[in-house]
Amino acid sequence: ARPVHDVEVAWLTATMARARGDSVRFVVDRGGVQTPLLLVRTRVVSRLADGTVINPLNTKLVRPEPVDDAIVAGWWLLLRAHVERTRGEFSEARADIEVAEKLLGDRPIIAFTRGLVALAQGMSDKGLEQCEAALAKQEDGLARLVLADVLASMQQPFKAYRHVNKALEAKEPLPEAWVSKGLLGIERLSTLPQAQRGAEAKKLSEAFEKALKLDDHVAGARAGLAQLKIIEEDLLGAEKLLIEAVERHRDVNAALLLAQMWLASRKTTETVAMLAKLDRLDDERVVQTLSKALVVLGRKDEALKVVAEAQRRFPELHSLAFLRVDLLRKLGRTDEAIAALDPLLDGEDGDSAVLLQTQIYLQAKQADKAVQSIAKLAERKPTDKSVVTLLLLARMQAGQRDQAAALAKQALEDGVLSELELAGLYLELDDSDRAQAVLELALNRRKPSRQVVAMLAMIYVARGEKDKAIELRDRMVGSADDQADEMKTLVDKAIAGAEAELARRMAEPEVVPGVAADKTEETSP
Questions:
Q1: What number of helices (H) and strands (E) belong to the chain?
Q2: ∠ CA(263), CA(268), CA(274), 5° rounding?
Q3: Which of 41, 118, 132, 241 could form a disulfide with 35 if both were Cys (CB 3.0 to 4.6 A apart)?
Q4: What is the per-residue burial (b if ≥16 Cβ within 10 Å, else e) of 263-297?
């Protein structure tokens, strides 16, 4: 794949030529298959006044024609807006689109780019309306396929099919359209009756074959065929197709699917070699899979180096920062893991960074710092379950019992936590007294859940009060009406499980009967 677009190279070469005093014009190809709304197949070069073409990418022009500088500048801005969209830099993308509109005027390409940015921001209706309005004014098969991918991810397969089929109606349909048709069909295959799957799978296979006939290097076709082979349980055939796709085309999706197969069959060393050779540290999925395979091989330090290098080269991918933190934690480098999250605390991923940093503090037995980490976020998000849960754990571990009790009471009143969830947290912290109190409070409800009754029965047994557990069971079964059998079965299992656990603990000499073991070391918040 080319690392840069024709428009970028043309602009750079023209700038260099003008810097030395040459007169330069841009030349665009008006022939061949065009994708005007995405510019993917737009071919542009710079040409000197004497006719010399500066063409370092060896771009082939079928029907070259001059084009104004302003148009090429507008195209360049739109390409930059696409990059900013993928980085989540939406304000910058919109600013570039506005300048491009001043240069290009009210063209369909402007509306389509705006629509993609709106879709990326979650404004589905507005984004789809802008993209479809642009397509109504100017046909672009590849743009339709991009929109189909978005619709499929939004669980709107029928609208996605409509755009794919429209792209296939073109005089010269793109090979990618057949790939999209096949991939959409694979997602639908499992929903069909068994008797229909064979015939449908054959049609999908033909779609991928058509794509390869049009372009033997088209991305996704061999990976799609491999997915069909996997469904047919022809794993050797699938593996062969995926290896070919990776070796011939450096197909990332094929590489990830192959890695998934190899890791499942314990071919971890082969997975590492294949992904390292692929050298796609710009794709966070590849980095994550490669680092996972290295960790499985016991090469955690090497995994950390891979993630650190990817983060250095692509600092805008914040997911890599979180992956690096996770590896630092696995290596026991807690202070470094906490420090690595500091730069993210005030950014768009700040809330996630605070949550993770708090968890690490708790696991490192630094409860006071955990409280400081999460307290401000809890003020902003007082009804967020994850935030409230972590703050409650932190306050309990820090010995702030009164504040923790007030927080727990408020969480119950606001419906942020149920009695069952709160009792589970108390048990995780070995505070069975509070857990029992919460569950007994829940019994005052008109119809307490079976799970509440079962957990309370387990606590009674663990305290040596089996008679109390049986009395509770009989009382609740008597008022359970049509769910009496289910209630009795569940509570009996809970009592038996608690007795087995109590017997196991009694048999362990290092555990004093009746005293709960400290599980906080091994329990993740």
A1: 26, 4
A2: 95
A3: 41
A4: beeebbeebbebbeebebbebbebbbbbbbbbbbe
Written as one letter, the residue type at 363 is Q
Whole-number Cα distances in Å, 334 to 221, 293, 328, 354: 44, 22, 7, 15
What is the rounded CA–CA span in Å between residue 60 and residue 252? 27
pLDDT in tens, 283-338: 889 999 999 999 999 999 999 999 999 988 888 778 888 999 989 988 889 999 99
Q: Is 15 exposed, middle or buried (0-12, 13-18, 19+ CB in 10 A)?
A: exposed
User: pTM to 2 decimals?
Assistant: 0.68
What tokens does 396 get? 């309990």
Q: How far apart are CA 451 and CA 494, in angstroms?
A: 9
Q: What is the structure's pLDDT at 509?
A: 58
What pLDDT is attached to residue 230? 92
Of the candidates 356, 287, 349, the residue with the CA atom closest to the CA atom of residue 318: 349
CA nearest to 42, candidates 21, 17, 59: 59
Strands 53-54 and 64-67: unpaired
Distance, CA of 234 to CA of 244 (rounded, Å): 16
